[in-house]
Amino acid sequence: MKTKNAWIYLNTNQCFGSHQGGWSREMTCRGELPTPHDLEEMVDERAFGEKRLGLLIMDDLLHPLRLKLDKPEKDPRAFLQFGLRHYLNFSVETAEVRFFPLSEELTYLTMALPKPWIEGVYAFFENKGVQLGHIGGLLTTLLSETKLGWNAVTIGIYREVYLLVEMDEKGGFVQFRTRRLPLAADGQLDIQTLVHSDWEGFMQPTPAQRAVKLLALTEDHQDQLATMRAELGRFRDTTLVPQLGGNSLARFQALLQQPSLAAAGGRA
């Protein structure tokens, strides 16, 4: 992955670009993922002035799942794809599957997108004279392509979901989970449930020396990071909260360009 790529980030109703100082568009997609027709309306014309582009997606839209095989397989892809048949909202026969081995034997983190969608998106940008060099989740791209998450437990928080990924000293994936953020009766984020029910038990097996890196990938929960950090401090010695601002793409770029940000504690 080229770190000097221009970038586009999208979720179900927003699209951000890094071109010429940045731009943003909002609209309602016709489905969970924007169609090429949606992109025609969502993508700013400035994006087509770049010859090479990376496309980032909210990680939850890649249907991240933890799957375990019954026995070792030389090439697990087909078996993992078969195992996804009950979990995807599109035909598993059309799925393009990416997978990463986890530390538990025969266990994998999988991500999947429909091939017709991928082909349509590539064709859309090709018709605009742009080479699309990368499609991936925002947080998982950072973890796969940088050392941001090495020897750490990284928690990425979006508006409605979080991803928690533990990596070892060599950058291998150890554990993974993603869930919707728990809400209290008043509709506000339930931080006690999030930290002590969702995260604390999950982190018990992790080595104590692995820092927790708490990343707000949207602006929505920025003012609650300090409380999360304090609660994490009840059972983890080190919780790092990099200073991030702007939209999701701006936060991605800050971490991509200056990965040391993720190794420096800051006030939430």
Give a structural overview.
- By secondary structure, the chain is of the alpha/beta class.
- It contains seven helices and 13 strands.
- The strands form three sheets. It has a five-stranded mixed sheet.
- Helix 5 (191-203) crosses helix 6.
- The two termini are 30 Å apart.
Structural class: alpha/beta
Mean pLDDT: 90
Tell me about the largest β-sheet.
5 strands, mixed
Rg over CA atoms, rounded to whole Å, is: 19 Å
Give the topology, please.
Blueprint: E1 6-10, E2 14-17, E3 23-26, H1 36-42, E4 52-57, E5 65-68, H2 77-83, E6 95-101, E7 107-114, H3 115-127, E8 131-137, H4 138-145, E9 152-157, E10 161-167, E11 173-180, H5 191-203, E12 211-216, H6 225-232, E13 239-240, H7 248-257
Parallel strand pairs: 1-4, 4-8, 9-12, 12-13
Antiparallel strand pairs: 1-2, 2-3, 5-7, 6-7, 9-10, 10-11
Gist of the model:
This protein is an alpha/beta fold and 268 residues long.
Keywords:
single chain, 268 residues, alpha/beta, five-stranded mixed β-sheet, 13 strands, 28% strand, disordered C terminus
